[in-house]
Amino acid sequence: MRDNDFTKDLSKDPAKVGSLLLRYTTTDMPIHKELISSEECKQFFRDKIIVVNSHLERKTGVIVEALSKICERVLVSSAMVKSVDQAVLAYIKTLQHVETFIDIEYDENDLEDGWANIIKEVNDSKRGVVILDDGAHIIETANKRNLPLNNIISYVEQTTKGANKISQLYSNLIGFPTVLVGYSDFKAKIENQEALGESTVAKTITYTNDQINNSTCVIVGYGSVGKGIAKKCIALGGKVIICEINQMRRNEAERDGYEAISRLADRIHLADFVFTATGSTKPVVTRDDILKAKNGCRFINVGSGRYEIDMKFLDSILRRYSITSNDGSILETIYFLDNKNERYIRVLTDGYPINLYKIDPLYSGDPPRVIDAILSLMIKSAIEATKYRSNRYIIQTSELNVEEWINNEWNKCYKH
What average pLDDT does range 130-142 have in this prediction? Predict the structure, then answer.
């Protein structure tokens, strides 16, 4: 069979494509492979029900497939429809012991119903339940719909935004061991600062056919993600301005050699690129900011969901044009701000986080080695949390000694 015939054959069977994607991705995830095959892991998950709410692509698909072989049931949903890989989802649906609560045809509003249905399954279960990855959506849905949360023996929140929600808004709902991997020092450095910073800038250059060199880059938010983006932009010859409402972080940015401001409006007229990296659920780039922006300015969301840029305002603009990939995914949209089509701004990936928006199944999300480490840290934390004895339910990774474990595994597998 010729290569092109093989490709055509695969295109008729998305599940087969998903299977192949997972098969070769597994070889890029040695920490996970060793951990999931350990007796400790098999014993822990053997009679459990696992909830995985994740950005469903090839790396997270590997985890779902592996768990399906050692636990009683895996309940799978997605944190964002736009990040779901259709081939991976098709394959996951063929696996024994896996039930999916996500469909490629869903819009973002359908997700909450899926999370509510998972909560019902969890409450009806006669087995211990472990929640993994972006479970804050499920906790939030339980709070919104006044639903109980029973039978949960361990919950690991992998996202920084989710960790913020749990610690700041929903700690009163937590009556089970909960590990905030989103606050892990390892995640902040290896994923947020290094991998996400690099991939954000690389995808921006690729999707726009533009360059950072000699461009002015305004970065909104100076947490670990913002620091990573700033570092990469400087390395490529860009001028970086940090916009941060927190005075201590502004001081830190200035010590790191950047100009730091508290109001985006003060410098947006200079920006060629605006990266938002705050994790906010409300726009940090407002309508007024957009109208004051430099002509042709590009806006890139690196937060969570379609929140950080005022997309409600932009969606109301009828004079716009989208540049799409072969599968119809939106690379960039040009919004015309006047009737003469002379004033315009550009938004990448339809306002969704650029690192999660699925353009190509091979290049969505973080690199396999990073996801390998973070998801392995998550699984190890879930196990260790059930052994931890404390009068508090919310636990940091530093209290479980899993930071030392993952650093050792990382150095063993990836540091040369």
Answer: 95
Residue 132 pairs in a beta bridge with: 52, 156
Task: Determine contact, residues 18/98, Cβ cutoff 8 Å.
Answer: no
> What is residue 16's DSSP assignment?
H
Question: Which of 143, 160, 106, 125 lies closest to 50 in space, CA to CA?
Answer: 125
DSSP 27-63: TT-HHHHHHHTSHHHHHHHTT-EEEEEE--SHHHHHH
User: Any idea what DSSP says for residue 136?
Assistant: H
What is the DSSP code (8-state) at residue 327? T
| Residue burial 43-60, b: 16+ Cβ < 10 Å; e: rest | ebbeebbbbbbbbbbbbb
> What percent of the chain is predicted at pLDDT more than 70?
96
Give the pair of three-digit tokens for residue 34: 């060793």
Please identify which residue in the block is written with the tokens 């909560």: 119
**DSSP string for residues in 256-286:** TT-EEES-GGGTGGG-SEEEE-S--SS-SB-
| 225-266 pLDDT per residue, tens | 999 999 999 999 999 999 999 999 999 999 999 999 999 999
Mean pLDDT in the chain? 92
Please state, in angstroms and rounded to a whole number, the distance separating the CA atoms of residues 229 and 235. 10
For residues 215 and 192, is the Cβ–Cβ distance under 8 A?
Answer: no
- Joined together, the tokens standing for residue 79 give 């944190």
Mean pLDDT over 339-354 rounds to 93
Q: Is 391 exposed, middle or buried (0-12, 13-18, 19+ CB in 10 A)?
A: exposed
> With 90 as the cut, is the pLDDT of residue 300 above it?
yes
Q: Classify burial at 144, counting beta carbons within 10 Å of its beta carbon; exposed 0-12, middle 13-18, buried 19 or more.
A: exposed
E strands in 206-352: 216-220, 239-243, 259-261, 273-276, 298-301, 320-324, 330-336, 344-348
Contact 75, 152 (CB under 8 A): no
At residue 283, what are phi and psi to the nearest 5 degrees? -60, 130
Residues 280 and 306: their CA atoms lie apart, in Å, by 10
Q: What is the rounded CA–CA span in Å between residue 31 and residue 21?
A: 18
Q: 58 near 28, Cβ under 8 Å?
A: no
Q: In what order do the strands lie in the sheet with 239-243?
A: 259-261, 239-243, 216-220, 273-276, 298-301, 344-348, 330-336, 320-324
